[in-house]
Amino acid sequence: MLPVVLLNLVRLNFGLLLVHSRYIRDHFLQDSIEIFQRLLIIYQNHVQNLDYLYKNHISLKAMLRPGFEPGICDSKGLPGFKSYLLSQDLERKTALELYRYGCHYNYILNTGNASELLTFPYSKRRHVMKGLTAYSKYLGQYTKWQKIRNNYQLKWSSGNNSLEGFHSIMRENGNGNIDDMLEWIKQAINEFPRFANILKFNVLTGLRPQEAIDSFNLLLSHKRQEYLSEDKRLIQHYKFPNLFLRRTKKAFVSLVTKNILELLEVNSSKSITYEMLRLAITRQTTQEFKMSYCRKIFATFLRNEGIETELIDLLQGRISNSIFARHYYRPPTEKFDEISNKLDRLYYTIIEK
Question: Is-above-0.70 flag for pTM?
Answer without folding.
Answer: no
